[in-house]
Amino acid sequence: MDKIMERILPRVQKPARYTGGEYGQTVKELSAVKTRFAFCFPDTYEIGMSNLGMRILYGVLNEMEGVWCERVFAPWGDMEDQLRKNGIPLYTLESGDPVRDFDIVAFSLGYEMAYTNVLNMLDLAGLPIRAEDRGDGFPLVIAGGTSCLNPEPLAAFIDLFLLGEGEESLPELVKIYEDSRLSGETRESFLKKAAKIEGIYVPSLYEVSYNGDGTIKSITPKDGAPKKIRKRIIKNLDAAFFPDKTIIPSTEIVHDREVLELFRGCIRGCRFCQAGYVYRPVRRRSPEVLAEHARASLDYSGYEEMTLSSLSTSDYRGLRPLCDDLLAHCEARSVSLSLPSLRADNFSVELMERVQKVRRTGLTFAPEAGSQRLRDVINKNVREEDLLNTCGIAFEGGWNTIKLYFMLGLPTETDEDVTAINDLVNKVVHVWHQRAKNKARGLRITVSTSCFVPKPHTPFQWEAQVTREEYMRRVALLRSVMRSKSVTYNWHDADTSYIEACLSRGDRKMGDVLEKVWRTGGKLDAWSEYFSMERWLNAFISCGVSPEFYAFRERGEDEVFPWSHIDVGVEPEFFLYQRHEAYNERVTPDCRAACLNCGALSLCPEVGCDA
Ligand code: SF4
Asked: How many angstroms does the Cα of residue 594 sit away from the middle of ligand 1?
């Protein structure tokens, strides 16, 4: 580490974020490397190092001969000041080399509030932020991740997007880019070729035209680019790469444990949930393969906790035998298993007691809505008695802390639905008094509400978001009725949800706003220390763009969306059908009960939907 870094690091918070050298990182001989890949996570080390997608793709790329993938995270403000003050360009953790000297600079995008970090990291690397200003000789700047399923707000800054799962498409792209570079092909000609690979979207090859009212008129491909870009999926997860060798972070991270991914997709079809639709069709890993990965990764990392992750872990067929199999290995090593996303309608106390034998943690359920009517509108398919019975079983099992997650601002929501949250919580308290085995420690319920953000590629993609004032009025209403001493109520901030709504359903005009926010100091917007609503509002004004147009406006059912050229497999007609069922307050069965032919099967007809 050079003298400057030795001088700088003692002056910044958590210097271990910036040093690299962790157990498990990949270092390669430069002479054996043909492609240098800088994998940028647009948030801090603690967040990025917890990201499973990054762990997987880091491993996939470093398994490729001649390819060296290195990590980069967004610096915290104090470190950024030091880098700028000392003229040090953004560097990778493995080699410490400047990102601008790499062949490919890639961003993993899972949250819209990280977008200003993308621009900031490009600038810290000494690269022009706009793609049009980066010709031949500059690194290829790419992005992937769920947020890219509406890539338009970032279209001006990214050369190409990888849509869907990257385990196969990323190595394909790296290979053709390597050949293209080594054959001296121009960037322009390479991009035209890349646009023909399924799952790759090159925004510069699409013209967007607008109607007088600001809505999109058409999105027109040119130079042979496809009309629709279809996301990529991994059809056989058992055969897919899984990171058994995790990098052990040098400082505490958000999810500091092993993660075992059980399956992708979800059978449930909650109408607000983007992940539940964009990861379809449902594909799972077999218990045998999972047990192998679990043993290998735990033995390699020495972690004392492992999460069995998916969108709805309690829906994994064979969860009980899998846990029994894993527990045999874990108990001997005092490793605890955690089951993150539990549903209130298929909770098993026996399973929980076994899983939490090593370390007991609280229980978390997400009813999302207080009234049965509204739970039916959002197709949550959880009945009140399911939740109350599950809580009762848990209280008999000795649990006394429960977290309950709800949203406010859902389509068709009334004040009765809002106060119904309190009614439901009071019933949980009542069940505790009736059934709790151990009352000595008292009951602690944490209720959290977030502001509903309508997302692309969901049945609610047409909905208007409630205004911030209306969201806060509903928060105040709920606070006014929530009296129980056993209950703590937390609510999310409305401002970030408002900006998130503008970015997640924005078009290319949002790119100008994004640049303006960044040029006026915007970065780390996912952190309250850095987020400034005033800065965002000023940027909208100076760009002549209306945030209400993106957030608070209901879309016509025949409107062209900024993401209408992105195909996630689920048919647009299916989303519309589900929207109508929502307004009729009707639920539809989950995929295990009946296949509703959403269209996702077309992505892997030969494998089928492993619902
Ligand atoms: S194809 Fe059928 S079973 Fe598969 S995700 Fe769609 S609705 Fe569910």
From this structure: 8
Amino acid in position 242: F
Number of H helices, E strands in the chain: 20, 19
Q: Which H or E run contains 426? A: helix 415-435
Query: Domain 2-230: what homologous superfamily?
Result: Cobalamin-binding domain (3.40.50.280)
**pLDDT at residue number 341:** 66
Distance set, CA 579 to CA 24, 154, 258, 346 (Å): 47, 28, 38, 26
Rounded distance between C-alpha atoms, residue 595 and residue 402, angstroms: 33
| Long-range own/partner contacts, residues 529-537 (CB < 8 A, 24 or more apart) | 529/77, 530/77, 531/113, 531/495, 531/496, 533/495, 533/498, 533/499, 536/499
Chain segment 489-524, per-residue pLDDT in tens? 999 999 999 999 999 999 999 999 999 999 999 999
SS3 62: helix
Best mutation site among 568, 596, 602, 607 for ligand 1, i.e. most ligand atoms within 8 A of its Cβ? 596
CA of 161 to the centre of ligand 1 (A): 26
Q: What is the pLDDT of residues 123-155, one digit of tens each?
A: 999 999 999 999 999 999 999 999 999 999 999
Identify the residue whose tokens are 């089928």: 608
The number of residues in the chain equals 611
- Secondary structure of residue 329 in the 3-state scheme: helix
How many other β-carbons are positioned within 10 Å of the β-carbon of residue 308? 24
CATH classification code of 362-453+464-499: 3.30.750.200
Ligand 1 centroid distance, CA of 271 (Å) = 14
Report which DSSP code applies to 439. Answer: -
Residue partners of 183: CB distance under 8 A and separation at least 6: none
How far is 155 from 375, CA to CA, in rounded Å?
Answer: 36
Between CA 406 and CA 413 the distance in angstroms is 12
Q: Where are the domains of the chain?
A: 2-230, 362-453+464-499
**CA dist., res. 445 & res. 557, Å (int):** 40
Other residues' Cβ atoms within 10 Å of the Cβ of residue 111: 17
Separation between Cα atoms, residue 117 and residue 521, nearest integer Å? 11
| Angle between helices 77-85 and 115-124 in degrees, nearest 10 | 20
Task: Characterize the bridge pairing of strands 263-264 and 283-284.
Answer: antiparallel
Residues 113, 497: Cα–Cα separation, whole Å: 9
Calpha distance 123→108 (Å, rounded): 17
Q: What angle do CA 520, 502, 491 make, to 5 degrees?
A: 95
